Structure formats: structure tokens, C-alpha cells
Amino acid sequence: xxxxxxxxxxxxxxxxxxxxxxxxxxxxxxxxxxxxxxxxxxxxxxxxxxxxxxxxxxxxxxxxxxxxxxxxxxxxxxxxxxxxxxxxxxxxxxxxxxxxxxxxxxxxxxxxxxxxxxxx
Length: 120
Hints:
By secondary structure, this protein is mainly β. It is built from one helix and five strands. 8% of the residues lie in helices and 45% in strands.
């Protein structure tokens, strides 16, 4: 069997721990369960990558504002933030697994995630 490898698929997930990464890609979408808008940031370095979703909700807004601050973009009242501004920015993230119960099936799911953002 031959397995095609497309651009961006040549790396595995980053290992657990703190990593300095660059945001290389932004994808936008809506959550599968409740239709909440989100953007997903691909964060990578030479060792691997992690794809982190940021939800545009009351609970997610402080996390988004923190992300922008850590990459050196200061959010200001009355001004829109553009997710395209994040591409090419570097920061330090903590990578690890997050386990939760799927609201549709009730089964346990585990995701690889980035958290605890810091400036580099």
C-alpha cells in the first residue's frame, strides 16, 4: 500500500510539554454540536504540530484575547481582530491531552491541545 503525504501531513503531533511554535495556518468553522463559530490555529515547529480550536463564545473570548496578547497584538475596544494577523506569529504553548465526554454519544474523547500561552 502506498500512503500519499500531502503538504502539512509530514509531521506528527507535538509531544507533551512546553514548545515554542509558529502559527502557520488558520481555518474557520462552526462546532459540530451547537454551531458555535471557531477558528483553528495550526501551531508547529520542526518537531511536530498541534491544531487548537478557539471558540467565539463568552467562555472562549478571554482565551482568544490572551492568545492575541501573547503574540504581541493588543486587542482594543471597538476594533475588530482579524485571525489572519495570527499567521506567522510565534509563542510558547503547553501541549497535552484533554479528555471530555462527547455530548452526543456520552463516550469519552481525548484531544491533543495547546494551552498556557506565553510570549517568546
